[in-house]
Amino acid sequence: MEQVFKRPVSLKDVQTHFCPGCHHGTIHRLVADAMDFHGVQQETIGVASVGCSVFLYGYFDIDVVEAPHGRASAVATGVKRARPDRFVFTYQGDGDLAAIGTAEIIHAANRGEDITVVFVNNTTYGMTGGQMAPTTLVGQKTSTSPYGRDRKKDGSPIKMAELLAQLGGVAYSARVAVDSPKNLIQAKKVMREAFGYQAQGKGFSFVEVLSACPTNWGMTPLKANARVGEEMIPYFQLGIFKQEGNE
Amino acid sequence: MSKRLFVKGNEAAAMGALEAGCRYYFGYPITPQSDIPEYLSRELPGLGGEFIQAESEVASINMLLGASACGKRAMTSSSSPGISLKQEGISYMAGSELPGVIINISRSGPGLGGIDASQSDYFQSVKGGGHGGYHIPVLAPNSVQEMYDLTMHAFDLADLYRTPVMVLGDSVVGQMKEALVPNPRPQRELPEKDWAVRGKGGGEQRVVKSLFLGDGELEAHNWKLHAKYQVMKEKEVMYETYLADDAELLVTGFGSVSRIAQTAIAMAREEGLKVGLFRPITLFPFPEKALAEAGIRAGRVLVVELNCGQMVEDVRLAVNGKAEVGFYGRPPGAGSLPSPEELLDVIRKSCARI
User: Fold this and answer.
1) Using alpha carbons only, what angle is made at residue A197 by residues A193 and A198, rounded to the nearest 5 degrees?
2) A120-137: pLDDT as tens digits
3) Nearest chain B Cα distance for residue A103, angstroms
4) Which of B24, B47, B70 is the best mutation test for A, with the most CBs of A within 10 A?
5) Topology annotation, domain B239-352
6) What residues contact A27, with CB distance under 8 A and at least 6 apart?
7) Whether B63 and A83 lie within 8 Å, measured CB to CB
8) So what CATH class is B5-196+222-235?
9) What CATH fold (topology level) applies to the domain A24-242?
10) Of A42, A74, A106, which has the smallest distance from its Cβ to B200's Cβ?
11) What is the ipTM metric for this complex?
12) Contacts of B67 in chain A (CB under 8 A)
């Protein structure tokens, strides 16, 4: 009998440390699938960030450089300039990319660095225990916004995929979710497309993935998964915001 | 034989980097070092290299981290406030055992301070600078020639010990013009970079990281780094002496101020005063043994610095009470560079007390 579904070869056959119901594992799978699809595993250098995604090298069977908090896009810039013949991606959370690393992501994108950035938005700082992130929704309670995010004091959740789409150096920018089969199928397609932009040397590509964090949201895996559709997607709308050559 | 050129210290450092095979530069403008990025932005594209004017010093040190992780010779340069911003990345590079060269044409502080020649970043440079209890080799040129030579040497040390290396100058050595003989890079046997990420290509996975969470891993890693520093202390110390053998007063200072001290010592010798100079060239590893020997032989050491007293602490540790240690400091600021005559006066007073 033909096996129709299997582990991507870019993914190691190990258990992850992620909490039950966390979407990181699914997103890792999508990234590995995109590497397999383009056949770039053996020539890929991944850049890990700080947070729950720091253990990238434990799960992807590729060479990895670990970046300081927020600096993955700058590290990836150095890697890609040194090895333009290699496939380079970063994998960053929302605190890492949209707070402490804002300058680095904006300028790497604006320079049009030929890299792919996978941005995991779960509206919270996962590893440090569920503090308010730049993507925390208005009214959302976290360990550092115990009365709920106040738009007047804390600002509004940042829409990175739309923001980066405005920059000249960006070839591809999209937001996807992995909370339903339909969204998952679209996410897989988008991830392959984004990686394809780099594989063809078309410039900077960005995929924001909405992700559940049951532990820090204080929800069961099922409720957390449902929240993605009920609360996140209405604000963080899914779509492809820029797709150079296909305007 | 190489011809003699007449160039600025900052340009000499950039030329030394190119001769050493550095093809990747990442930086951000700041006085008084901007000649370095300006020079390299002209030269690197023609050499097949990459020059990026980054969005910040934070980004540029991390671009250096990335290029270095690929096994390439890469560098950045800045000046004190910018070096403060780079400390995070330097700590990560030290932790990840990544080579790389950082040129610090330091200026005065604290805060925005000023752009005058200053040695107030001695502590920051030699005691670690960033978090986590590491050291990096620090080289202190006192001439345009040394800006060139020591930058080349810095790349070798970086590769040899898998560590960031700092070249610490100031506006005197960075901005002055002197004769330079652009010697070819030294041929030193260097280890293969079998740790660099390259895309597996069917080989073993390589990971460059500074996170160690397994039982005992981080302790072992720290001891490994410590052992490396001990080897540097044995093998990589550099210093220069001038009329030190029969000296009864040993003046010591590094970098720009050592040039002024040398002139003052020559003047003092004409007056019959037995004064000599000990100039540390490596500030880390500090030439503690050689300095202790020379200082104890003289009996009295005068430390001269362009700050309120930093290296003097390492001198006191080195002689360990076996020689008298005096200090003459000129904290930074316009017009505060001591003249040879002023230093001669300090030397006379120190000798009068013998």
Assistant:
1) 125
2) 999 999 999 999 999 999
3) 7
4) B70
5) Rossmann fold (3.40.50)
6) A118, A120, A178, A209, A211
7) no
8) alpha beta
9) Rossmann fold (3.40.50)
10) A42
11) 0.97
12) 78-79, 81-82
